[in-house]
Amino acid sequence: MEYFRRTNSFFAAAFVLLLAVGLMAPNWFSYLTTISLAKALVVIGLVILLRAGLVSFGQGLYYCLGGYSVGIAGHYLQWTDGFLVLLIAMVVSGIVAAILGLLLCRYREIFFAMLTMAFSMILYGILVKSVGLGSTDGFNIHSVSFFGWEPGTDKLGLIVYFLACLAALIVAVLMHRYFHSPVGFAGEAIRENEIRVEYLGVSPNRIIFSKYILAAVLAGAGGGLTALASGHVDPEMAYWTTSGEFVFVALLSGTAHVAAVFIAAFLFEIIRTYAFDLAPYNWQMILGATLLLIIFFLPKGLWSIFTIRRAGGGVK
Amino acid sequence: MVKSNSFGRRVQFLAIFFSFVFLAVGSGPNSAQAADDSKFTVGVVTFLSGGAAGPFGVPSKNAADLVIETLNEGKMPAPYDSKGIAGMTIEAEVVDEAGGGTKQVGEYRNLVQRKNVDAVIGYISSGDCLAIAPVAEEMQALTIFFDCGTPRIFEENSYKYVFRTGLTATIDSVAAARYILDQKPDLKTVAGINQNYAWGHDSWNDFEASIKVLKPDVEVVTEQFPKIYAGQYGAEISALMLKDPEVIHSSFWGGDMEGLVLQGSARGLFEGRTGILTTGETAMFRLASEMPEGTVLGARGPFGVYAPSNDLNDWLRTEYTKRYDTPPTYPAYKMTQAILGLKSAVEKAAKGKEGKPSTEEIIAAFENLEFEAPSGTVRMSLGKGHQAIQEMVYGQFTNEGGKPGVKNVKRYPAECVNPPDGITSVEWIQKGLKQTECK
Amino acid sequence: MDTLLVILVDGIVYSSWLFLVAAGLTLVYGVMKILNMAHGSMYAIGAYSAASFVGWYFSADYVPWASYFFFIGCALAGGVIAGLLVERGVLRLMYGSDEVVMILVTYGVLLILEDVTKLIWGVDAYFAYQPYGLLGRTKVMGITFANYDLYLIGVSVTVGALMWYGLNRTRNGKMLRAVIHDREISMAMGINVTRTFIITFVLGSALGALAGGLTAPALSVVPGIGIEIIILAFAVVVIGGLGSVEGAAVGAILVGISRAIAVHTFPEIELFVIYGVMALVLSVRPRGLFVTATARKI
Questions:
Q1: Of the candidates C11, C224, C259, which has its C-beta nearest B50's C-beta?
Q2: How far is CA A68 from the centre of its chain?
Q3: pLDDT tens, A3-47?
Q4: A interface mutation test: which of B9, B102, B116, B168 has the most A CBs within 10 A?
Q5: What are the start and end residues of each CATH 3.40.50.2300 domain in chain B?
Q6: Rounded to whole angstroms, how far apart are CA atoms A148 and A158?
Q7: In a 3-state reduction of DSSP, which class is residue B225?
Q8: CATH architecture group of domain B31-167+308-389
Q9: What is the ipTM of this complex?
Q10: For chain A, what are the domain ranges?
Q11: pLDDT tens digits, residue range B141-169?
């Protein structure tokens, strides 16, 4: 248990540091960090699935659902409480995942990836058709409050940043525990050999079902946070390129540790924004080359930078 | 248990990571340059990758390069023959518009805070404009939309820091409906083929509603909505041919519009049926041999071939063609218009004063401004003085004697195709387009 | 009745195009187990190569009909070169990675190639419409079709038949199928797997480029056209069963006909057709139509 305590104190230290950075850093930087924290939540969900050997090319579905839940709750139902709308985003994502999960938990490999993508593209199609929701233009989220208190537009960015930090801390602590729990390890067992897992009296489908819902809830929270931070939602959030981006970050981080996901998400945003800045015409090339270099040199993701030297890989 | 030294290594890694972060933050803000009164920096945001880059992004970027360079040399025709903007040298920071709303909000913040630009000119996608407008308000940064078309921006909200020097998409559709009924007073059937996204839906809905209001007995025989960038329109063309309408409306743009023209012409879709291409002007020279005779072409305003004859227009056409080897299309005109609008506003604000005018002063000068552009006089009179109105022009393509051009050109005065301030476009159309005078 | 026939013709025209687009993808997956996202770039490279050739050819007043051989040749050459560069330059280093990792590798290649095509050809549209109109039109039930599109059906059938013959009736094809079935055993039997991989990837790329080149005359060739067809091709291949040529053909027909029906009867659902068909087929046959479930290994 000392391991958890040490990691938790590490998370807490990072949290305090992030809060301090938020107070000092300029607005563009805290926005970028908010977005990367929100995306990191989505990617943690993806990592949970990756540990079970599954890749979802459709996490954009829940990212988008989360964003639209926040938007619709605020815009059409006048529910503006930040915590409430985030909760709604997570619940909505969870419910949809529970329905789709019934079908998806039977799929593996590329078929799982393709089917998740198909569902996410169907949501994209529905939103494009919804003229009332602004079609591809989407709509803006105007007011957000916290327990009745409405921060002005100048403070909102910082508040959402703190909210994202808090969400990140909670998720990091819980998911780190989860990774080291029996059901967390069950994922790796499924990846290695499903039939043996069945012999142990555990149903792989049921475990995958629960993991899929968990991943969706996290993606919903990430989408909700993104919507609060950017103040705008559009169907692009469900498009396959958005989902592809999450897989990109998951690969960058690797599945070894929760903290790696946050670092990877942040790095990705930084690389992309500087690529936009340095090479407005050729930023795609920079991203592509980075992706290839990571896969080639760090096939197990960022965390391998400092586990690789541990002789014999003695992880216990 | 994990070996004890891994904790130390983790701290080490964290230290490196955060020093990188601080480096990124530290190298960011060029606040030292912000106080520089001899420069006026403009963020230019336009598509440099993807399907909108060729038809819109790059022509507008080219126009920005050309206009900014010429202004800095002081070589523009009057009334813009003074150097730079109010004597300050103009510098451009170019950003790709790709990546969607969330990404663009981030890039916008970078422009305003990290790059410290004095104004942002940009945005082709309506979705991006909707996302950016509230952020501009929050960051109190002067922002000029040059191309995006949705009327929702100033109809759903009022903004202080946001201006739009380009026209709304409603104008295209209303004027197209008026034009086609002027040309074919006993029109019976129409059909539409528009892209399946907000622009296509809005364009078609406005066009259909205007036609219904102006001539209620016109029948809509089919409305097709293929996916944007679909490329292949074989089945849609067959469906249109089966229903055999007199007029086919399309707000396709760029590669999609050109693909429709190529495939439609090869199959004779436009023989005996008149096409209305609301953005067709961009293709009339490149596809002169394939564009069917008599096709109604729009340019989203008095741009391109529809621009009036004046010194500014002559200058833009000659210089742009000289440098880029192709005549300027409407995105180039719209970018030029945005830059000239900004110059007019800043110079009006700077008159009789020392140093760079403040954003507030520029805004006060910009509201309800009237300025000259290659497309004629532009009036910022809608949206509480933030949205431009201009006349709208349509004409029919002709390639007689192998010289592509337009015939039957009809100009509709601004009041004829724009709703009055305070009424939304949709309401205005539904109430019969009657609240404004139209001769 | 008229409508029905028109739907059928539209559907078959579109299906034959879909098959051309998807054929290379399914071949590469079948042999190499790589779901190649860069296939879209090959399509774009083919289209650009063909279009720039046609543009030059017709400005120089040569015999019009000869252009067909040359522009198709140009597209193929573009695909072969790009395929060779990608396989030797990148993929070779990544063999043995997880299937999903390989998708990401090809995604990286796609991003790079997207900008490379932009660097070579710029962002302005290229046109190659001359060959499209040259073949004339045919009237079917009062609806005019471009003969070029109708001939494409023949081309598509020929490509499919050649692929089937090559894989099933030739010695090299049999070796290829051995590699598909079990890479290690075939290596032990003396098949040069490295060479097989190079040939397959180059062939797959050339097929992608051929599809692009053949489509170019009906299109305005602009940046981004490659990205648009990837998901389409994926859907077709997944519906039919990954790695199966027959599957790709059936998938293409299924999607093509469904789309034509949608366009003619309910145009508003056109956007959903492809994903709807894919979700439907996968929920009934989890591995696509033409693939049987493999035994699970203990």
A1: C224
A2: 16
A3: 777 888 888 888 888 888 888 888 888 888 899 999 999 999 999
A4: B102
A5: 31-167+308-389, 170-299+391-430
A6: 17
A7: coil
A8: 3-Layer(aba) Sandwich (3.40)
A9: 0.90
A10: 2-238
A11: 999 999 998 888 888 888 999 999 999 88
